[in-house]
Design goal:
The complex is a heterotrimer of chains A (about 350), B (about 300) and C (about 325). With about 350 residues, chain A is an alpha/beta fold. Chain A folds into 2 domains: about 20-110 and about 190-340, 3-Layer(aba) Sandwich (Rossmann fold), CATH 3.40.50.300; about 110-190, no CATH class. Chain A is built from 13 helices and 12 strands. Chain B has one domain (about 35-50, about 90-310): MetI-like fold, CATH 1.10.3720.10. Chain B is built from 12 helices and no strands. Chain B is globular. Chain C is of the alpha/beta class and about 325 residues long. Chain C has a domain at about 5-35 and about 45-85 and about 225-325: Rossmann fold, CATH 3.40.50. Chain C is about 35% helix and about 25% strand. The chains are: A alpha/beta (about 350), B mainly alpha (about 300), C alpha/beta (about 325). The interface between A and C is large, with 44 and 46 residues.
Chain lengths: ~350, ~300, ~325
């Protein structure tokens, strides 16, 4: 980065530094109806458990990907990680400091930033690109005067745009280019940690490839750590060092990406992988996954996946599973714990739709 | 707005002229027509102190002998007074020019006041949400249940009691501006509140919050530029409304003092002479007011359609 | 004879700066009962193609040339009345967002009944019974009760199933499905795609499946057309196009899809972006980004020509060029 950052960058000699550590973080939302309506209908309070005791840690320079379908809470985790929401319970440490304390100090707050999903809503349509990219620099008073313009030009070049693009307005750019501007903005405060909320989901496949390559390059170059949120397992495969599979607010499987893809343990992970269309067209019939994701306001008892799980038994309905270690992967599943799951080779786990 | 050197004025004008709105303007006869009428009225009105043929405020120059003369093209009219004179001998044309000037000034000031209050309240209510929003919007609702005229009467009454006689006339114009402005701010507040709530949910606001910008800074630098669009349209239409309201107040005697010769006052003065056939004293000010408000409304309507992306 | 035939279709948008050609000479056919995938990135024109066929182009867009033939008879440019009778009865449609496709004010059953009775001679009782049967066929549990439910009472995946029922209930010969699963979760996508496949095979309905997702195409389509900048650049059997693409764009597209099988160091990317409609280069529109570009590509626009199992709009497969290369 321009002039090396004042902070010392640790090398990987010692144990990798942990950029973020979350311990049993929960986030609940009160979605009760207004008091009058509620009382008249005889309803109690309704709580949406968007995130339910989630724990993870991100080592410096690596990517933790959280993958799941809609309603699994991954977007809420993204906002918790960057401090837009406060946890209802549990703790998040950023560089060893409690997150809310860290965010109160500008010196620490500028070390994290975020990239968003929608390239059209993530840039202020009335601002020029150079002002958009410069905003964090100005907010943190990192540079003055003409240094700001130089730095903006440098950032635009780093993300594959031209310095002259700074004069333009967002609507003059395509989706992929706007994401590049978003990335430039996120980098301008020289962060170490970026939360990426589905950054390529709204982009075409060929543009996605460009952006993912760019993100990997930037990570290598600047030693960035990513919390990468996505619903697309193929993208996640490409980006993740560590992987967390989420379902209804909980992490159901957690471990090195390669281990999980090679041998998924949790039935939900397996079914997610099954649901992906087979581009190699090996002719293997793909069995559809039955059921839909239940509402997070009223999750099923015990293990929330039991209504759709082919391995569910009575214990699964009654008791919430703890994490079982299987190799270097954690899985929250009674069947895994009891050894009832079949090895990866046999794909006879699916129940008909 | 942040940033270093803004684009030069010339390039901004060039960009505007080349833009879609200006293009639509050039192709709309209604827009061009109303703009021309408005331009003529505005020029005549604003430059009245310098270009009016006579000075109707100069009491010494008035000659009662000249009173109630019909317009130049009528039988008894003279070319000295193009639109005739009124009961005090004042030239109608000059009086109307000054009256229109006052109407524009009061109307514009009232709109500026309403926009200022309304945009401020709307931004705050939309961004803060919750109880702040509820309280502010209830205030707006209460405000809406009072018509401008009633407010003007109330404020008038208060001023009459509390302010010494000799200062009352000078203050009256501010009273009128305040009364009209305070009646029209809720509309701006509501629109801005709605737009603010839409913008607040967008990711670029989240990006600003992530880097820790304060609420007021986000409201002013990020949200405000994006919610001003509808304000322009409503402001234009409110200007016409404000001018009519001012004329109504003056007509009723609770607006501007007679010495300031607002169009409303003129109409009331002329009303008495209608039955005796001296129609021009009431009709010409009425026509001037109508022309001004109509052209403003037509332009405002056109502007709303031109700025609506879906209709393009 | 093909069920649907599109010949040299041109769709244009007259505007103040001239007329933009969004579709520039698109030609293809769909056989009865066949599933044709139309794939491309944003701005390629695939949704416009579907809209033009069914007569739902948003003004100022209009068909500027070419013809659309259903069973050999022209349907482009038909007056509103006749077009109305074709829609629903001959050609059904499934769009991306089920929330806006279904009328929130009417029950699901009412919408089905209304659609059926518009096109088929059915009594109220018959239509009602069929509506329940359709809901059962698309996999809605307890259809007798759900037939009186409102759209907002269904989840996203269920709603899309209802939309499919709605599209098929008048028994059309062709269904145009525009990104039917893009808004759905991946596990629901699989269900909905399987359903679409099953029902269309059962009823012999042809499908024009428009999507940007190659995976869905691989699973569902018999043939696929790849669109780029308002033209078809490759068309052929799905296996050939996906596994042995001829056109450099298709090749690049397939290569840039991250694979589930292995983590790569770098994804293969196509540099640059699809040209805007206002800035389409002369000759082949892909020439600025093509790794195999040569002189002719910059000057002449290629039409579809036979190429290794598919048809591709690429000069590499021109006879003369091939001969010259061998020489």
């Amino acid at each position: 980065m321009v002039g090396d950052s004042v902070d010392a960058r640790p090398d990987a000699k010692n144990a990798p530094r942990v950029v973020m550590e979350a311990t049993k973080v929960s986030r609940h939302f009160d979605v009760s109806r207004p008091w009058l309506a509620r009382t008249l209908a005889g309803e109690g309070r309704l709580t949406l458990r968007a995130v339910d005791e989630v724990s993870f840690s991100i080592a410096l320079g690596t990517t933790l990907a959280l993958v799941g379908e809609s309603g699994c809470g991954k977007s809420t985790v993204a906002r918790l990680a960057v401090g837009l929401y406060a946890p209802t319970s549990g703790q998040i440490l950023f560089e060893g400091v409690d997150l809310s304390a860290a965010r109160a100090q500008p010196a620490l707050r500028r070390r994290m930033n975020m990239i968003f999903q929608d390239p059209y809503a993530s840039l202020n349509p009335r601002w020029r690109v150079r002002d958009i990219v410069a905003e964090p620099i100005r907010a943190f008073r990192l540079l003055q005067g003409s240094d700001v313009a130089d730095r903006v030009a440098q950032l635009l070049t780093q993300v594959g745009l031209s310095p002259r693009d700074g004069e333009k307005f967002p609507h003059e750019f395509s989706g992929g280019q706007r994401q590049r501007v978003s990335i430039a903005r996120a980098l301008s405060s020289e962060p170490e940690f970026l939360v990426c909320d589905e950054p390529t989901s709204a982009l075409d496949v060929s543009v996605q490839a460009q952006i993912l390559n760019l993100m990997r390059d930037l990570q290598d170059r600047f030693h960035l750590s990513y919390l990468f949120i996505s619903h697309n397992l193929s993208v996640v495969r490409h980006m993740a060092d560590q992987l967390g599979v989420m379902y209804l607010g909980r992490i159901v499987e957690y471990g090195p990406g390669e281990s999980i893809f090679a041998a998924p343990r949790h039935p939900y992970t397996r079914l997610l992988l099954e649901a992906i269309p087979d581009l190699s067209m090996s002719g293997k019939a793909r069995a559809a996954v039955g059921g839909e994701v239940p509402s997070p306001i009223n999750p099923p008892s015990g293990c929330p996946f039991h209504p759709r799980c082919p391995l569910a038994n009575d214990r699964c309905v009654a008791e919430r599973p703890a994490y079982t270690t299987s190799g270097d992967v954690l899985a929250a599943c009674h069947a895994v714990e009891e050894g009832r799951d079949t090895p990866n080779g046999q794909r006879n786990l699916v129940r008909a739709a | 707005m942040p940033g270093s050197a803004a684009p030069t004025a010339a390039s901004a004008v060039a960009r505007f002229w080349d833009g879609d709105v200006a293009y639509a303007f050039r192709r709309s006869p209604v827009a061009i027509g109303s703009a021309l009428v408005l331009l003529v009225l505005l020029t005549g009105a604003m430059l009245a102190p310098w270009i009016a043929p006579y000075n109707p405020f100069d009491l010494a120059s008035l000659n009662l002998m000249d009173s109630n003369q019909p317009p130049a093209w009528a039988e008894a009219g003279t070319s000295a007074h193009l639109l005739g004179t009124e009961s005090q001998g004042r030239d109608m044309l000059s009086t109307i020019m000054h009256g229109t000037r006052i109407s524009f000034l009061v109307g514009a000031a009232a709109v500026v006041f309403a926009v200022g209050v309304g945009v401020g309240v709307g931004l705050l209510a939309g961004y803060a949400g919750g109880n702040t929003d509820a309280i502010l919007m209830r205030m707006a609702d209460v405000q809406l249940s009072f018509p401008a005229i009633l407010i003007a009467l109330l404020v008038n009454g208060v001023v009459r009691i509390s302010v010494p006689q000799d200062r009352q006339e000078a203050l009256q114009i501010y009273v009128v501006i305040f009364a009209i402005g305070i009646s029209y701010w809720p509309q701006f507040a509501r629109t801005v509140r709605g737009s603010t709530m839409v913008e607040r949910g967008k990711e670029y606001i989240m990006a600003a919050r992530v880097i820790g910008l304060s609420g007021p800074r986000i409201m002013l630098t990020h949200i405000l530029p994006n919610v001003l669009g509808p304000v322009t349209v409503i402001g234009t239409l409110t200007l016409g409304l404000a001018m009519v309201t001012e004329a109504t107040l003056s007509y009723l005697g609770v607006g501007l003092p007679p010495s300031q010769l607002s169009l409303g006052t003129l109409i009331r003065l002329g009303q008495d002479y209608l039955s005796s056939g001296e129609w021009w004293i009431a009709v010409f000010p009425g026509m001037a007011l109508m022309a001004a408000v109509l052209s403003i409304n037509l332009l405002g309507d056109w502007l709303r359609d031109a700025l609506n992306p879906r209709l393009r | 004879m093909p069920l649907l035939e599109v010949r040299d279709l041109v769709v244009e948008f007259p505007g103040r700066r001239g007329t933009l050609r969004a579709l520039d000479g698109v030609s293809f056919g769909i056989e009865p009962g066949e599933v044709l995938g139309v794939v491309g990135e944003s701005g390629a024109g695939k949704s416009l193609t579907g809209a033009a066929i069914i007569g739902l182009l948003e003004p100022p867009g209009r068909i500027g040339g070419g013809r659309v033939l259903l069973d050999g008879k022209r349907i482009d440019g038909l007056p509103y009345d006749q077009l109305r009778r074709i829609r629903g009865r001959q050609i059904g449609a499934v769009f991306q967002d089920p929330l806006t496709t279904l009328n929130p004010l009417f029950t699901v059953g009412r919408q089905l009944v209304e659609t059926m009775q518009t096109h088929l001679p059915l009594s109220d009782a018959q239509a009602q019974a069929r509506a329940v049967q359709w809901l059962r066929d698309v996999g809605i549990p307890a259809p007798e009760r759900r037939v009186d439910a409102y759209p907002h009472e269904f989840s996203g995946g269920m709603r899309q199933r209802v939309v499919i029922a709605l599209a098929l209930c008048a028994e059309p010969r062709l269904v145009i499905a525009d990104e039917p699963t893009t808004a759905l979760d991946v596990s629901i996508q699989a269900q909905v795609i399987a359903l679409l496949k099953k029902l269309t095979r059962e009823h012999g309905t042809a499908v024009m499946l428009v999507t940007h997702d190659m995976g869905v195409i691989a699973e569902t389509a018999d043939r696929v057309a790849v669109m780029y900048a308002g033209r078809i650049v490759e068309i052929g059997p799905v296996r050939d196009v996906i596994q042995r693409p001829s056109h450099p764009y298709t090749e690049g597209l397939m290569a840039s899809i991250p694979s589930l099988d292995a983590r790569m160091d770098r994804l293969r990317q196509i540099d640059g972006a699809m040209p805007r409609l206002t800035a389409i280069p002369p000759g082949c529109p892909y020439n600025p980004r093509c790794p195999k570009v040569f002189d002719r590509c910059l000057q002449d626009r290629p039409g579809l020509m036979p190429a290794r199992g598919t048809q591709a709009a690429c000069w590499l497969y021109d006879q003369a060029h091939a001969e010259a290369a061998l020489a």
